[in-house]
Design a protein that fits this description.
The complex is a heterodimer. Helices cover about 30% and strands about 40% of the residues of chain A. Chain A starts with 17 loop residues before the first strand and ends in a 6-residue tail after the last strand. Chain A has 5 helices and 9 strands. Chain B has 23 helices and 20 strands. Classes of the chains: A alpha+beta, B alpha/beta. At the A-B interface, helix 1 and helix 2 of A face loops of B. Chain B: Its cofactor is thiamine diphosphate; Mg(2+). Chain B: Its EC number is 2.2.1.6.
Chain lengths: ~180, ~600
């Protein structure tokens, strides 16, 4: 490898990237989301999806679900870096548990008349998407499912008059009776 | 309503801050006043338990507090105002985060109703300092202030130590609320650093150590941070195992430089024997170090055939740069004690005679050799003389950043921990002078020397005024080569000898400068005059600027060039190795 003139060793990393879903339980206090996001941007980690909401209001607990990609070493770093933040209670790698359910919600607006409109409605039915708004020339569908299913539905809507999409990002929870 | 006027815990936010400092045993506070901290300064004025040291620039306060903390093991405390006061603190905070130095920084903030209004001297202090602190807080309610202050001290000093910021709006300083002394419930339930190492992992580590044929101990700043007991245990472990030991820049002094098993510092400008031992070892025990890029060189060729044990209090240090075989999360002192106990009970000293013989061959190459000169002072010689003439004294050394820093690390022998204050991680030029002031405040009767460079020292030169005001007799020992030497060295090595802006033109007359500040200036340029001048510097009970004119074009060796492994060091031309001499001598000048 030809090393450019640098005070740093510049390394090519060839480890394959993996996608992991992390659930992070945090104290809901000012700045906590900024801390988490700042960690990702500051250290050059990826955020594919991020959802956050208070989940236990009496205890001021919020749950952040992050989908991220990186080499196995980077994923491990991300978890450790999150875990050492003062307001972070727990970090669970939902992907490693292999027992997690992931869901995302999307609202998909499609404009069209005639045959494409009928086709859109038929596909929506096949995907168990609900019509939550309609005009004579448009629909807004609500669809819930894993990321792949939603992406597939959006791809199908594209030639049928897709106008816009709003997605929530992934929420995840473990199967079975145990909590996080 | 009950009458609260006689409740001693009812007080203003400003009074709470001073009270909390006292409750945490703070004796010295480094700071600079301004509009948003005036109520706190008013409280400071009316008491005598906490002594305030007025600096000349907030960055100076931060580095002084770092020097204070590093030399005492206690947290350094800083008080600065909002806006520019806070932004000037960013460098010391980032520096302290990198080197795990406990700092508690209290910043003033504009009144809560003005936050977000672009008010005079407003900045988003918690936003700006979030990535350069271990944690930070904006206190919007005076009744939260006591809890936050106590938590701040706890977070700064426990686990992996680090800097914290408490941002206090001016109306909160004026408001009256209830104070309480420190208590356990002040701290986040989610913050519980692990101190004790896992027993299974410790057994695995001992088994590896006991079976080692080519072992090495690689220790770092974590041992110093853990306290004197950790250094004692490290020395005992070296004694019990007979293993060779090297250390990072931050860890110097944990094992004495005069110790028989000492290999010298490792890494980019470490000794040949330390780096070769690291490269060829079969078992590596890393204690409180973090496999930083200045240590490892090329990571894919780093110590390729060793099993690695890594003790660190911060789980995120594990497997960050180098994959290790036996990670142990815990405090260096606790884990070393457990390892020693198990080792003494179940293992015996491995026979590593042949390993020591190999090391002796590497040592014999004398990788720190330099060409003596009778006409000009060689910078290495200056450090050696400084070391010899301060030997046996109660001495603390701080440094700036650059060649002089590496020469200080290579040629000044540290016998005890907490005696060496340097900016390792962030590499902050201008660290050493204010750090020396902080050290001198903590140790008024000790000899405190900042080994500086002509470029670095000018970055915080204004703190000479602080030293004079508080009669702190710090010695600023400047290796003056009229260059930013390390920048120039890299330009010579990697950028075709085009010395772009690395020459120090228009240097001040350091002797006159010292006198202008009310200190003492000394200048020496002949090797024969050096000893006398150093002795004079030591005997002067005032701040001294010592302008030591050294060989201008000397470079710092040995060196691991970028993209190279530990066994591909460039040795100085003077080392006793013809091939290396060629590589080193011809590539440069």
């Amino acid at each position: 490898m030809n090393q450019p003139a640098s005070a740093y060793f510049i390394e090519d990393r060839h480890d394959p990237n993996e996608t992991h879903t992390l659930s992070v339980l945090v104290q809901n206090e000012p700045g906590v989301l900024a801390r988490v996001i700042g960690l990702f941007s500051g250290r050059g980690y990826n955020i594919e999806s991020l959802t956050v909401s208070e989940t236990e209001s009496q205890k001021h607990l919020s749950r952040i679900t992050i989908v991220t990609t990186g080499t196995p070493m980077v994923i491990q770093q991300i978890k450790h870096q999150l875990d050492r933040m003062i307001p972070v209670y727990r970090v669970v790698d939902m992907t490693l548990t292999k027992r997690a359910i992931e869901r995302e919600l999307a609202m998909v607006k499609v404009r069209g008349i005639g045959e494409p409109r009928v086709e859109a409605l038929r596909l929506a039915d096949a995907f168990r998407a609900r019509v939550i708004d309609a005009t004579t020339e448009s629909f807004v569908f609500e669809i819930t499912g894993n990321t792949d299913k939603i992406s597939q539905f959006i791809d199908l809507m594209r030639p049928l008059g897709l106008v816009e999409v709003a997605r929530t990002g992934v929420a995840a929870i473990g199967r079975g009776s145990e909590g996080m | 309503m009950t009458d609260k006027s006689h409740d001693p815990n009812q007080m203003t936010g400003a009074a709470m801050i001073v009270r909390a400092l006292i409750d945490h045993g703070v004796q010295h506070l480094f700071g600079y006043p301004g509009g948003a901290v005036l109520p706190i300064y008013d409280e400071i004025f009316q008491q005598s338990e906490v002594e305030h040291i007025l600096v000349r620039h907030e960055q100076g306060a931060g580095h002084a507090a770092e020097g204070y903390a590093r030399s005492t093991g206690k947290p350094g405390v800083v008080l600065v105002t909002s806006g520019p006061g806070a932004t000037n603190m960013v460098t010391p905070l980032a520096d302290a985060l990198m080197d795990s130095i406990p700092l508690v920084c209290i910043t003033g903030q504009v009144p809560t109703h003005l936050i977000g209004n672009d008010a005079f001297q407003e900045c988003d202090t918690v936003g700006i300092t979030r990535p350069c602190t271990k944690h930070n807080w904006l206190v919007r309610n005076v009744n939260d202030l006591a809890k936050v202050l106590h938590e701040a001290f706890y977070v700064a000093t426990t686990g992996r130590p680090g800097p914290v910021v408490v941002d206090v709006p001016k109306d909160v300083q004026f408001a009256t609320g209830t104070y309480h002394p420190p208590r356990k419930s002040d701290v986040h339930v989610s913050y519980a650093p692990r101190v004790k190492g896992d027993a299974m992992q410790i057994r695995k580590a001992v088994a590896l150590l006991a079976s080692a044929k080519r072992p090495v101990i690689y220790s770092g700043g974590g041992v110093v941070n853990s306290g004197p007991e950790a250094s004692r245990l490290l020395r005992e472990l070296v004694e019990v195992t007979g293993f060779p030991i090297t250390s990072t820049l931050m860890g110097l002094g944990a094992y004495p430089a005069s110790g028989p098993n000492w290999l010298g510092m490792l890494g980019m400008h470490g000794t040949y024997e330390a780096n070769m031992t690291m490269h060829d070892c079969d078992v590596m025990l890393c204690v409180g170090a973090r496999f930083d890029d200045r240590i490892t060189g090329r990571t894919d060729a780093f110590s390729p055939n060793s099993k690695k044990i890594h003790i660190d209090i911060d789980p995120s240090s594990i497997n960050k740069n180098i994959r290790v075989d036996v990670p142990i999360i815990g405090d260096c002192g606790d884990v070393l004690a457990d390892i020693l106990q198990v080792f003494k009970a179940e293992a015996k000293k491995p026979d590593i005679k042949s390993w020591w013989q190999e090391i002796a061959v590497w040592r014999a190459r004398n990788s720190l050799a330099y060409k003596p000169n009778r006409d000009v002072i060689m910078p290495q010689y200056a450090i050696q003389r400084l070391f010899e003439l301060t030997r046996g004294r109660d001495t603390y050394i701080t440094t700036e950043v650059g060649q002089h820093q590496m020469w200080a690390a290579q040629f000044y022998g540290f016998e005890e921990p907490h005696r060496w204050m340097t900016s390792g991680g962030l590499g902050t030029m201008g660290y050493g002078l204010p750090a020396a002031i902080g050290v001198q405040v903590a140790h008024p009767d000790s000899l405190v020397i900042d080994i500086g460079g002509d470029a670095s020292v000018q970055m915080t030169m204004q703190e000479m005024s602080t030293a004079v005001q508080y009669e702190l007799p710090v010695k600023i020992f400047i290796l003056n080569n009229q260059y930013m030497g390390m920048v120039r060295q890299w330009q010579q090595l990697l950028h075709g000898n085009r010395l772009s802006h690395s020459y120090s033109e228009a240097l001040p007359d350091f002797v006159k400068l010292a006198e202008a500040y009310g200190g003492v200036g000394l200048q020496v340029s002949k090797p024969g005059d050096l000893d006398g001048a150093i002795k004079e510097m030591i005997s002067v009970k005032k701040p001294v600027l010592f302008d030591c004119r050294v060989a201008a074009l000397e470079n710092c060796f040995p060196m691991i060039p970028s993209g190279k492994a530990h066994n591909e060091m460039i040795l100085p031309a003077e080392a006793s190795d013809p091939a290396a001499a060629f590589a080193g001598g011809k590539a440069l000048v």
